[in-house]
Amino acid sequence: MTPWRPRCPQARPRIAYRHVHQAYLKILLDWAVGSAYAAMDEWAMEKHLEKRSFEEVLEAVRSRKREIEFLRGVLEAGEVLQDPDLPTEVRSFLEAVLESYPEQDIRLLAVARRREPSEEGRQALTKAMRDLL
Questions:
Q1: How far is 90 from 104, CA to CA, in rounded Å?
Q2: What phi-psi label fits residue 5: left (phi over 0), alpha (psi between -120 and 50 degrees) or beta?
Q3: How far apart are CA 117 and CA 125, in angstroms?
Q4: What DSSP element (H or E) covers 49?
Q5: How many CA atoms, within 13 angstroms, populate the side-chain half-sphere of residue 133?
Q6: What one-character DSSP code corresponds to residue 133?
Q7: CA distance 28 to 89
Q8: Is the previous residue joined to 9 through a cis bond, with omega within 30 degrees of 0?
Q9: How do residues 27-76 score in pLDDT, each as one tens digit?
Q10: pLDDT tens digits, one per residue of 70-120
Q11: Could you count the other beta carbons within 10 Å of the beta carbon of residue 120?
Q12: Whole-prediction pTM value?
């Protein structure tokens, strides 16, 4: 019979910090502004939008803009990023989210434009891209 031993902390599965931060950010954004696209990696966002209409892509980009503006306002107002107690990984993650705007959105619109069959859709997506520049 093997003697009982408590589980060692190293035996628990580790969750990458990035996934924890993304989940946390998604919960907060969804609650505060009604969507959480800013918390998604670019590839996940592309995958999410690949079968959507151009109107849905435009709405997602507008939602992402609202989220980024909200997040930027909260972070700047509370001086969160200057907090010395904020872990480096969290600071880096939040900075990367803020820095992804508007370049990521322009790329998402460009991908949607390439696959859009209608002239109306291509024009609307082009206009949205220009508005972000």
A1: 20
A2: beta
A3: 12
A4: helix 42-49
A5: 9
A6: -
A7: 18
A8: no
A9: 988 999 999 999 888 999 999 999 999 999 999 999 999 999 998 998 88
A10: 989 988 887 787 888 888 888 888 888 899 999 999 999 999 999 999 999
A11: 10
A12: 0.79
Apex CA 15: angle with CA 80 and CA 20, to 5°? 30
Q: What is the pLDDT of residue 43?
A: 92
65, 101 contact by CB (below 8 A): yes
Classify each residue of 72-110 as buried b or exposed e, where b means 16 or more C-beta atoms within 10 Å of its C-beta: eeebeeeeeeeeeeeeeebeebbeebeebbbebbbebbe
Report the C-alpha gap between 84 and 67 in whole angstroms.
Answer: 25
Cβ-based neighbour number of residue 53 at 10 Å? 13
How many other C-beta atoms lie within 10 A of the C-beta of residue 24?
A: 13
Cα atoms found within 13 Å of the Cα of residue 118, Cβ hemisphere only: 7
For CA atoms 79, 80, 86, 90, give the dihedral sign: negative
Q: What are the residue ranges spanned by the domains of the chain?
A: 37-132
